[in-house]
Amino acid sequence: MPFRIATFLIASIAIGVGAGAIFGWKFGWLGAWLGAALWLALDAWRAERLLQVLRNNAAGLPTRGAGVWGELSERIRKLLREREQQTRQAEDRLQEFLAAIQASPNGVILLDEQGRIEWCNQTAASQFGIDAERDLLQHLANLVRDPAFVAYLASWNYSRDVVIDASGPGQAQQRSHPVRLSVQVHPYAGNRRMLLTRDITALEQAEAMRRDFVANVSHEIRTPLTVLAGFVETLQNLPLDADERARYLSLMSQQSHRMETLVNDLLTLSRLEGSAAPSGSQWIRIRALMAHCEDEARGLSGRLAPQGHRLSFDIEAESEISGAPTELQSAMSNLLSNAIRYTPGGGEVGVSWRLLPDGRGEYAVRDTGPGIAAEHIPRLTERFYRIDRSRSRETGGTGLGLAIVKHIAQRHGAELRIQSTVGKGSRFALVFPATRVREARVLAK
Hints:
Layout lengths: L1 H22 L4 H29 L10 H36 L4 E5 L5 E4 L1 H7 L11 H4 L3 H9 L6 E4 L5 H4 L5 E9 L3 E8 L1 H37 L4 H33 L8 E3 H19 L5 E6 L3 E4 L2 H18 L5 E8 L5 E7 L21 H6 L6 H11 L3 E7 L3 E8 L4 E3 L6
Parallel strand pairs: 7-9
Antiparallel strand pairs: 1-2, 1-5, 3-4, 4-5, 6-8, 8-13, 9-10, 10-12, 11-12
Helix pairs in contact: 1-2, 8-9, 9-13, 10-11, 11-13
């Protein structure tokens, strides 16, 4: 302000002195008034120019000049630069936030006060079968027609979620089973709403598997327990001769052995699921594993069939395999024992080991049993899944053998292959990756 007053006085005095020197001192006051008017006109012009720039395009502000208007212009330019920088930073943060939501495996939909779509990520669009751009400002209840969802959205009671089937056009083609969604609504900013969707298909399947598993275990244990309780009651209440008592005790021993086998298989599955994958530093000879399998197979064949089975063991290449020896032995023995259990006496069971052209190793068990229908093959590795329950129990099977084989194969990076023809027999093979197979080293004599 002192600078403006000084410039005003200087302009007035200077023009007044100039007018007095030229036209005489009696015109000095007229010159002073004229100088003041010119200064005011120039000051008003500079103010109007600044206002015009601010009204039209603030980016065209003149560079810093003299006087209060120059100082004001520079300060406005600085404030605008800071605001523009803050706006860019806010926009960048918003885009990063939207990108994070877009990458989320859960669906997110934002609705306005009327229930129209303001924004949604691609996950939600895929789950609900909507277009993230085309369907903006459309009422979500008109696009998702599930009655439970429509009623939930209109209820304004969002204390719980609602579970519906995904309606996206690609969901049915991608999976053979329906995709289940959990939808939870959260109101915000008045009557606006945010929908969060979560794919709970795997959770529901796991829960169904848990229920089936508990039911199967209970059923499998209840049967031998019932038999044991009946025999115990018989021994306690009835006078029996030595032969009857021996027969009952033998049957009780069989049932207790069956429960023990079941518990051991369950513990094996639990250990396999809860332990780290085996390392590739421990190597064991295939011939040693096959010899152990042969001893077990011949003993089992003799117990199940008086005439036995025709067993053959063929090793085409002396090899070593890396992994956990007990797990590998368990997987190989399970495949072989299954073949013997389901092959009638006198049938043929062949076991082989060979190296494939790409360096992988294949352990295969082939039998001449009744074979397996094609619809059963995809489910053979499920726990307690049996094609013939009575036959499995008669031979002492628990229904967990192939589930154990599958877990061991996965832990060793191997592939379980099943081929079967009804009436002709089956072939089960474990194909191990080349990284876990090598040529057997010659032992020094």
